[in-house]
Amino acid sequence: MALIGRVFTPDSPVHLLLYGGLLVCFGLGAAIGDRYRRRRSHRTVDADRESPE
After folding, report:
1. pLDDT tens, 7-47?
2. Rounded to whole angstroms, how far apart are CA atoms 37 and 8?
3. Dihedral of the CA atoms 5, 8, 11, 13 (nearest 10)?
4. What is the pTM of this model?
5. What is the rounded CA–CA span in Å between residue 26 and residue 19?
6. What is the DSSP secondary structure assignment for residue 50, as one 8-state letter?
7. CB–CB of 40/31 below 8 Å?
8. Where are the domains of the chain?
9. Cα–Cα distances in Å, from 19 out to 11, 22, 29, 35?
């Protein structure tokens, strides 16, 4: 338990920058993944529609 506490406490400003960078990367990855999923599901809905012919 003490080891986990030591890993997650920032000992220097560099740790804060690294954790901030990880958060930014995680947020960007989540946003890009969400956008990709929405585009794919939109294409699937368009493909499932019947043609008027």
Report:
1. 666 666 777 788 889 999 999 999 999 998 888 877 665 55
2. 32
3. -160
4. 0.53
5. 10
6. P
7. no
8. 15-47
9. 12, 5, 15, 24
